[in-house]
Amino acid sequence: MSKIVTFGEIMLRLSTERHLRFIQAKTFAASYGGGEFNVAVSLANYGLETDFITKVPENDIGACAVKEMRKLKVGLDNVAYGGERLGIYYLETGAGTRGSKVVYDRSNSSLATTKPGDFDWKKIFEGATWFHWSGITPAISESAANQCLEAVKAAHELGLKISCDLNYRSKLWKYGKQPSEVMPELLSYSHVILGDIDTAYFMLGKNKVNPNYQDEKSLPSLYDALFKLCPNLEFVATTLRYSVSASHQRIGGVLYDGKQIYNAHIKEVTPVVDRVGSGDAFMGGLIYGLLTYNQELQKALDFAVAACCLKHTISGDYNLVTLEEVEKMMTGDSTGKVSR
Amino acid sequence: MSKIVTFGEIMLRLSTERHLRFIQAKTFAASYGGGEFNVAVSLANYGLETDFITKVPENDIGACAVKEMRKLKVGLDNVAYGGERLGIYYLETGAGTRGSKVVYDRSNSSLATTKPGDFDWKKIFEGATWFHWSGITPAISESAANQCLEAVKAAHELGLKISCDLNYRSKLWKYGKQPSEVMPELLSYSHVILGDIDTAYFMLGKNKVNPNYQDEKSLPSLYDALFKLCPNLEFVATTLRYSVSASHQRIGGVLYDGKQIYNAHIKEVTPVVDRVGSGDAFMGGLIYGLLTYNQELQKALDFAVAACCLKHTISGDYNLVTLEEVEKMMTGDSTGKVSR
Amino acid sequence: MSKIVTFGEIMLRLSTERHLRFIQAKTFAASYGGGEFNVAVSLANYGLETDFITKVPENDIGACAVKEMRKLKVGLDNVAYGGERLGIYYLETGAGTRGSKVVYDRSNSSLATTKPGDFDWKKIFEGATWFHWSGITPAISESAANQCLEAVKAAHELGLKISCDLNYRSKLWKYGKQPSEVMPELLSYSHVILGDIDTAYFMLGKNKVNPNYQDEKSLPSLYDALFKLCPNLEFVATTLRYSVSASHQRIGGVLYDGKQIYNAHIKEVTPVVDRVGSGDAFMGGLIYGLLTYNQELQKALDFAVAACCLKHTISGDYNLVTLEEVEKMMTGDSTGKVSR
Amino acid sequence: MSKIVTFGEIMLRLSTERHLRFIQAKTFAASYGGGEFNVAVSLANYGLETDFITKVPENDIGACAVKEMRKLKVGLDNVAYGGERLGIYYLETGAGTRGSKVVYDRSNSSLATTKPGDFDWKKIFEGATWFHWSGITPAISESAANQCLEAVKAAHELGLKISCDLNYRSKLWKYGKQPSEVMPELLSYSHVILGDIDTAYFMLGKNKVNPNYQDEKSLPSLYDALFKLCPNLEFVATTLRYSVSASHQRIGGVLYDGKQIYNAHIKEVTPVVDRVGSGDAFMGGLIYGLLTYNQELQKALDFAVAACCLKHTISGDYNLVTLEEVEKMMTGDSTGKVSR
Amino acid sequence: MSKIVTFGEIMLRLSTERHLRFIQAKTFAASYGGGEFNVAVSLANYGLETDFITKVPENDIGACAVKEMRKLKVGLDNVAYGGERLGIYYLETGAGTRGSKVVYDRSNSSLATTKPGDFDWKKIFEGATWFHWSGITPAISESAANQCLEAVKAAHELGLKISCDLNYRSKLWKYGKQPSEVMPELLSYSHVILGDIDTAYFMLGKNKVNPNYQDEKSLPSLYDALFKLCPNLEFVATTLRYSVSASHQRIGGVLYDGKQIYNAHIKEVTPVVDRVGSGDAFMGGLIYGLLTYNQELQKALDFAVAACCLKHTISGDYNLVTLEEVEKMMTGDSTGKVSR
Amino acid sequence: MSKIVTFGEIMLRLSTERHLRFIQAKTFAASYGGGEFNVAVSLANYGLETDFITKVPENDIGACAVKEMRKLKVGLDNVAYGGERLGIYYLETGAGTRGSKVVYDRSNSSLATTKPGDFDWKKIFEGATWFHWSGITPAISESAANQCLEAVKAAHELGLKISCDLNYRSKLWKYGKQPSEVMPELLSYSHVILGDIDTAYFMLGKNKVNPNYQDEKSLPSLYDALFKLCPNLEFVATTLRYSVSASHQRIGGVLYDGKQIYNAHIKEVTPVVDRVGSGDAFMGGLIYGLLTYNQELQKALDFAVAACCLKHTISGDYNLVTLEEVEKMMTGDSTGKVSR
């Protein structure tokens, strides 16, 4: 059976409720999340074994994050402890024409200040078959980027499949390096990349091309450029997200295996309860799909898209849905009838 | 003036708030409801006299249910007391592509364990003109089914009009009998049946036919079959419910009097605040409409559909709207302007 | 730099939460608002200096209203103190086909019982360049109407620009005078009027004409009638509001300067978080637009419409958005993407 | 069996939660209460038949007050409808050294503007045995005082027992009359008066004497003065209330029947959940006690004191306790053990 | 290292908030607890390995209970799944003179309907050193009592230490057997009993003696009677609980090892945030104390009393405190200073 | 009239509600506070002019802090903007024997990273008469300590009175300097010091002496040592705080002017709603008292103690009480009666 290791930061998320603006909030809903953690939660919900690697402070707030991992049955045996603080992000939930706002307060966090020796990657990867990381970790600090590189190399040596969600965040990358200085080496080990073509190009130092994802003829050559730059690459996927408004999204996806383009039907997602983490839900679905339906790539993609859609109906960072719920929706039932 | 008696179970409803999943809930909103109670509430709101027949335990939770009846001006003089517990249903409110979930915890309830002698139907029906029951009560236990039969027979003898909402729930009917063993006799006394043609066929032991409710030509003969099986039948109605998503319903309705098909315009219902109880709102509206507009069947149906639509905007099981509000909407104003 | 004075009543607003009906509410959300105050808040948010003139009681509830003004950086140096009570309005927030309900409880309020001498208009208007009032103030009591007339005359003498939002409320005007007895003189001093043509005609004693706002040919002459009746008039604007449901509005606007009709694109607004105060948001946006873009009337109108649309996503009476947010939407971005 | 009629104002109570100050409150808890209504609730809880006489506006807020009466099984058949508004009182709940604050907003309420003909006292008192009023009603307006006098006279003529809780509120009595101009006639018909000796003296036009309620020797003559001024008087009672802090009260009581002083043990009440309405709980307990234990005056007093103590543990205006709970405490068990 | 197995029912706890009565509650706080689960949580918090044995239904509510176990790091590998429902208890939290109320709704629960084969005790006890059960389990149903006996016998055979909290609940024991028919055999295997002397006597079929726990002379012989009836007994302990009011408890404890009486200082506990589960906190503390300080029985008892006191400050069923917090209080610091 | 400048950090305070532990919290109450800000709020509430000097980030969270200042009428014209984040402290509110817990997350805050040039002290102190700082600011970072020294020197040069609350926090002072290396110079300019004798000794590099504050004979010489070390010192004050439990404090205070000891009566404070900021309330009261009653030192001290006691009843960091409320309590009325 597969065991998937994911590596990244878990943060305290402080969000306003009922579409209130920050200035109106007298309380913040407190939960815990982060891209790579969210992927691990998805996979745990689908019944896979996971191990989440992060570093949290030895205080009550760090302990809360750890309890969240345990409750969700995400493996936590290799969490490192220390540092000064748990990173935070503030979330103001938009509606209609008003978009949501994220204010990061994650600098100087325990993971951002990780030190060599915090993680024994050889030991961590024992028994693991897959390693997932994202473009956020190398963006938060130089030491986190270094750890990420160590991890990717160790995973590569041990023969794990490696996936990366590019996750470009312009408000990060403040420590003096550009993505194009850091990401190419990291991505060179990856078997699966999730991201826009232009984001990938940007991170790999190429010029943007503004691709048309509905044009299945031009897509292969655009994706092929990535295969050339990333010698281990087997699959590239892109989440298609047409934002009608903060409350109405249209979600699709494209998967390419170097030979063929797979395209998922666009689904209407309205209303949006919470769209944060929907990309992570896609990623989690894609990993599950590739592991489970790997001879049926269309099915793998459809599973990812269905998982992504369902995430928009779930409050919080991660996708609290079961395998059965995603499968039911994947096979066409999205009418939202009462189950009783 | 009419006095309508309804008979069924009132439950504690424990629902998550703000579309949370069960596992996310630290609190449950507590309210009280049940199909036949909800019908009584609708009728009381429209100004009719009602009497709700049920059995509740002699503890604080039973007392809460009784206070709810009183507050809503539903007649409660013939409520029976005793048994071990008030039935419960848990409700997780869905959104968009994720449907709502109901978890029943109603076995062994006071009504499910009702005993002969709990209800003196002759006395209960004194001064009453209408008796309403639904397919839920004979589904919860053999003794409840027996009481239901006693009630229907007594109502028949005393010349009351009898209506039934078929309300098939596959998770009930666990006590060893099938609907087709129990419902035919019960329905044989009914003057009004609300339900899908296929549900009615199933309960009466006929094969399903998957009717097309837009085809007004084929409908009469399909409904006519019910008139043949239920000798007292005067009206059959079907709620049309096209579920675009958990947050968007399209609601219509059909009424047939053995001669003519009446069809209501489909109305868009979005967003859905709470769709539980919308069928009961239709039923309540239909009874009101038949009593009030009985020479104008189209109007009776339109009233039922308008009531059903408005229910979707009301939190909780029952339809907290006034006669004026339903009439206003029935006559076309559904623009939701501010009244000030 | 401009300083805008607005005059009117600030009320305690008690609203039900999560679309509950009044009878379901165990708590009321408490906030403070009122048409002319809301305009001042908009302008303060856009960086302009404002002064809000009102009268509040010398008790804790009046003090809360004053603290709200201060927090929002609305000028409060000329607030009058005294009288018995702060006016209240109760708000039940609708959804879908069920409209919101407002119950006024504002009679006998401090402003309704204002006395001569409460406001020294000459002193108040020192350094001011614009005076805004609305048709609500002369509707609440004779003494408020008198103060309004005093204010308008003083502003006129001192050469301020004067704007009026007609804001007809049929549940007010209970003190014995009709709008047509009071409004013509008040409006005769105004440079800017916001309102429907028919509301303006009604208030000025003319018959309604049910104009077609999409017919740009017939509009000029209909608006011209107002220019004839109001000798100081420079601009008339109308908010176009097509109510699909309580949760879905389509918002546009028309501006006329006596020469040319400017028409804004209709924007879809769904879902509606709170539509109360959206007219005030339009008014605030229009004043800002006229002050800032006054050679570009289309831009001024577009700003007003964008502000109005955004208000529908904000809980509470006033428009808690920044200049940048309105400008971003005005220039076309209404996709509500996450900002991070 | 007894039927008790009480007459007075029911208000919307808006209170801050968790000891917040007014300025901190973003929500107000909304409930309904008022002295004479609270007495009726107590009596209904003890199983007696009641009828509450008041006037409420014909709007949604008035309807909420009526639904509260119905839920609590208080008789409401003789409620008058009309007028402009339901009175309000705002409550800031103190703690420890900080006392609670009440801000009245009840002028111009439906009851304050009651008109002759609103109440047909003869009809109202049919079948009734007891009439209860309090010193609040004649304090709110001249027309309310007039109605109170009409009621008292009618009750006297029809031979009902009449009780009055003096309830002096210095912030009321603003309509131009002093208590001593109004209360003597009203009290002359009363059989039971609840109040401090000094309050009674003040209302009857006598000088205050600052009595020592522990001195059972001096008390009889001080109370006897009341018997002289009120020819129908049979019982006077005083609630003893030693306020250690807002969170800690010591409660006792004195009852005098013109012959003998009865004194109840002082009980410690801490913490105080809500002390508003504790005097009404005493009054309700006293009426019940006099009706039920009338040969055992000590028991009647003890019941009143026990009811008063329990009220301090109940949130809201009225005493939501059962007969059994008061009796259990009256007979000594105040240890607050878990019942399971 | 020790591994402690506990066996019993976990229930959904539905409690009113802020001292509201049941009838006032619009929401219930939802948590999960039960005597033997609470003991396991205490021990897990102190760093010991635990395994909790229970049976939960295979529905969402059962899944919530399981997630709670996992989050709290209580072992759940041997939980049985099946049956109809998770038991419930409703809790109304009292204050001052008004005690809390518990309404049980636990009949027909998954554990109450446990069947032979649900638990493989031999396997469960592998690696375990201690088994804890309580008098609640044999009280809920005959099959639960049978499972309890099987468990006790298996634990005995395998040489585990066995502890029992007598936990007499008069509202249970409804299935036709008396405690004295069931408990003697069960208790005969126990090494540690927690309970009142009179409760123990009652369960063992002896007459009550109303012991004076302050009289250290008479106590030994009273406890010795238990040693005679329970041949494996090593320690008996009694929680002393003097209830000043629902908000103020005085807590002490007695421990007897057959030779010597150990008595803990009475501690003042006020205010009481939540006293449910305080006995379980004592039990958990006692097991920890006996395992850790077993040559120092006074210390073991003091630890149990300190844990019990702290529990009163924690909302919910179980004792969310750390080893360090209990030890700090045990050694005298109960001043509740701010830690910063 | 006086204008008081205070300088320090304002933080976001995230606190659990209803005595929940961190791990139980699904929401955090969000407010803003900090020692020197709290002092400014107190003084603003008493009607004095204040100016609060701090640095906040240019993001939404910083804007929230600024809006809080404005609402509370604290001067904010000299606030500096910039840096990365607003400092945070998490607060778990204890009860009874369980103390409250504070977790600091304030490193790297905007104020901690203040740079030379952020504050133009000469300009800031124009028109000011008093400068207040506390021992927290020099504890957070070297640059903050430097700014503090600059401020103190500038205030000294300009002839302002300078006060300091020692406020020792052992969890701060992490940047490499000890209090005794930094505080002596800072304190040498102060006219008023608030703190324990031992804290003062520790910060000034002297050995602790464990003083007995009830022994008025030994106190003068102990305080005199401070006068020797701080040449500008005029008053030393100590808050006496006897912690019975987290919910029950006894509060007193000592003031010494170099000649005479003033001692305030100990007041019982129970229950404690929120004790954080009670020292700041004392400080604010003392500054007000010294400014207002400066010939009556006993009165100044009594005012400070009364303010401190009242703060314990107020939720949040700062003391939301009026001058009248403190004076009323100062003169003896602490019975917490209802004001109505």
UniProtKB/TrEMBL annotation, chains A, B, C, D, E, F:
Its EC number is 2.7.1.45. Keywords: Kinase, Transferase. Residues 1-313 form the Carbohydrate kinase PfkB domain. CDD domains: KdgK. GO terms for molecular function: 2-dehydro-3-deoxygluconokinase activity. InterPro entries: Carb_kinase_PfkB-like, PfkB_dom, Ribokinase-like. The keyword Ribonucleoprotein does not apply. Belongs to the carbohydrate kinase PfkB family. This is 2-dehydro-3-deoxygluconokinase.
